[in-house]
């Protein structure tokens, strides 16, 4: 599609359609933009945490142990009240946004998102995480990256196919910057959000992922998300154990996902005002933290410790239940945040406990190896991303055998979870509950978001003989609206009007027909 006026954006869009080099340059820009946004998001979490707990240590449990009990409870409680007020007064829609909204935008709206909504959602999530809510930071980072990239695509008036690719670049950059894992970031964008690995889209996604990783490393240092001891597989005979672990992780994933929806239903059934729900959840989590402070925040301290084999079985079992309950309550009662970090932590705890229990009856690998495999398996079941989670494990360890073991457990966990829940991932389950069917033809969504302002106009048509009224549309209305209006009127064309109803352009029937063809080509060509 062409712009209806000349200029820099018009020339850039023409280059984008003919020169992959320019798309590569755009991917570099997105990598820098989203990488910087992800860094700012993480710094915002640290700032809020410092205000609530007096320090910005990623290991929040360590900070909480040195604080008086009343402050441990007050932090998430007062923070929950602020979060509730923020969503009620500031956030469009009054609710947190995350990866599900990104997937919905790709599937149903041609990749259109508003950058402002992404920034507002990130602020709500930073407040939630900083006050100690048991949620994840990667999901909000993905939403922020997607929104920033989609906002840029909107400014450039890109067609649906290119807009989805640009959005995928933002997603990959956010994951890569969060985990210091560029390969996993690129594959996550294709596996979970875009839904394909077409070379035309995958190449710029890889570029953005690498650029964001470089920027993140420059700011935080060249460190992976977790500092691991040397872990390796003791024997190939352990693969049947990985199958069993995968099944166990699949069951815990189902309990986690169902628990979030049940908690949301419980909050509604109790008729709690939406503005107070995060406060109630924060108070409950604060009380849990008096006994097990590891439930606070993203849970990376517990993950790190179990990977190192520092926890005993008598601590792991209650910690699994406590972390599951804390995450379910926080997500169900309206805190902003994602499910990635809770999934990783729960997977590590389940895997570590399984490895320790197995070591009681047979010589096996270190419990940290089972914790690592459990991380990948449970996260794969929740996210619907076995490839990406396996690649994260590989980038963390560089161990081929452990990566294969993770893939085996991830496939089992994902298959069992899908069989029980009937959905590929938590995000698709969320969309299904909102009435969004991702199996419907995606091309229909393109017609619903492509604006008249994206088309090339002719001169305004003359009023027909006899003084009959012209059928009009505005530049902000969609192609679907224009087609419906044309069909109802039986006219041969439409007049484009401004906000005051004055004619500023015209569209013939053939213009709309060509617009439909190009939109459908874009949708199919991008793997939609």
Question: What's the topology here?
Answer:
Elements: H1 8-18, H2 20-53, H3 60-65, H4 69-89, H5 99-108, H6 115-130, H7 138-155, H8 160-179, H9 182-194, H10 199-220, H11 239-269, H12 277-291, H13 300-307, H14 313-332, H15 340-359, H16 367-383, H17 386-397, H18 400-421, H19 426-433, H20 442-449, E1 472-474, H21 479-489, E2 493-497, E3 503-508, H22 509-525
Parallel strand pairs: 1-2
Antiparallel strand pairs: 2-3
Helix pairs in contact: 1-2, 2-6, 2-7, 2-8, 2-10, 4-6, 4-12, 5-19, 6-7, 7-8, 8-9, 8-10, 9-10, 9-17, 11-14, 11-15, 11-16, 11-18, 12-14, 13-15, 14-15, 15-16, 16-17, 16-18, 17-18, 20-22, 21-22
Describe this structure in words.
There is one protein chain. By secondary structure, this protein is mostly helical. Helices cover 68% and strands 3% of the residues. It is built from 22 helices and 3 strands. A 3-stranded mixed sheet has the order 1-2-3. Strand 2 and strand 3 form a beta hairpin. Residues 1-7 and 524-528 have low confidence and may be disordered.
**Strand order across the biggest sheet?**
1-2-3
Described by strand count, sense and barrel closure, the largest sheet is: 3 strands, mixed
Helix content: 55-70%
Separation of the first and last Cα atoms = 18 Å
Q: Choose one word for the global shape.
A: globular
Helix tally equals 22
- Round the Cα radius of gyration to an integer and report it: 25 Å
Tell me the strand percentage band.
under 5%
Q: Give the H and E element order.
A: HHHHHHHHHHHHHHHHHHHHEHEEH
């Amino acid at each position: 599609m062409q712009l209806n006026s000349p200029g820099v954006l018009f020339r850039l869009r023409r280059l984008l359609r003919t020169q992959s080099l320019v798309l590569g340059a755009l991917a570099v820009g997105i990598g820098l933009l989203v990488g910087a946004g992800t860094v700012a998001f993480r710094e915002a979490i640290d700032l809020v945490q410092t205000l609530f707990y007096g320090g910005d240590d990623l290991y929040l449990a360590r900070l909480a142990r040195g604080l008086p009990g009343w402050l441990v409870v007050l932090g998430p409680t007062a923070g929950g009240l602020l979060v509730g007020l923020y969503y009620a007064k500031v956030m469009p829609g009054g609710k947190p946004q995350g990866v599900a909204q990104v997937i919905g935008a790709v599937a149903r709206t041609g990749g259109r998102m508003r950058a402002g909504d992404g920034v507002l959602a990130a602020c709500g999530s930073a407040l939630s995480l900083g006050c100690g809510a048991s949620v994840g930071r990667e999901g909000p980072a993905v939403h922020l990256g997607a929104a920033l990239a989609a906002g840029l695509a909107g400014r450039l008036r890109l067609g649906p196919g290119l807009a989805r690719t640009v959005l995928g670049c933002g997603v990959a950059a956010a994951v890569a910057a969060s985990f210091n894992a560029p390969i996993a970031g690129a594959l996550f964008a294709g596996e979970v959000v875009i839904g394909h690995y077409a070379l035309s889209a995958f190449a710029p996604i890889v570029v953005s992922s690498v650029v964001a990783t470089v920027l993140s490393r420059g700011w935080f240092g060249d460190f992976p998300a977790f500092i691991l001891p040397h872990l390796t597989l003791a024997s190939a005979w352990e693969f049947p154990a990985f199958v069993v672990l995968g099944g166990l992780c699949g069951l815990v994933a189902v309990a986690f996902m169902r628990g979030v929806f049940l908690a949301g239903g419980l909050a509604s059934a109790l008729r709690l005002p939406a503005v107070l729900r995060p406060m109630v959840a924060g108070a409950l989590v604060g009380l849990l933290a008096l006994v097990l402070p590891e439930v606070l925040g993203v849970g990376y301290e517990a993950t790190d410790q179990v990977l190192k084999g520092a926890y005993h079985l008598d601590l792991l079992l209650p910690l699994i239940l406590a972390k599951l309950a804390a995450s379910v309550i926080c997500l169900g009662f309206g805190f902003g945040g994602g499910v990635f970090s809770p999934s990783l932590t729960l997977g590590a705890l389940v895997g570590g406990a399984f490895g320790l229990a197995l070591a009681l009856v047979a010589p096996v690998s270190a419990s940290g190896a089972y914790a690592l495999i459990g991380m990948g398996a449970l996260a794969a079941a929740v996210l619907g991303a076995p490839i990406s989670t396996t690649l994260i494990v590989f980038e963390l360890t560089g161990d081929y055998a452990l990566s294969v073991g993770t893939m085996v457990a991830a496939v089992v966990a994902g298959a069992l979870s899908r069989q029980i829940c009937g959905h590929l991932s938590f995000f698709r389950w969320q969309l299904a509950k909102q009435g969004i069917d991702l199996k419907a033809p995606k091309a229909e969504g393109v017609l619903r978001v492509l604006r008249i302002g994206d088309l090339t106009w002719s001169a305004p048509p003359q009023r027909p003989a006899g003084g009959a009224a012209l059928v009009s549309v505005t530049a902000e209305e969609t192609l679907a609206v224009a087609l419906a209006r044309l069909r109802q009127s039986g006219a041969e064309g439409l007049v484009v009007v401004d906000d005051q109803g004055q004619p500023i352009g015209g569209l013939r029937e053939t213009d709309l027909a060509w617009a439909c063809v190009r939109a459908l080509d874009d949708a199919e060509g991008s793997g939609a």
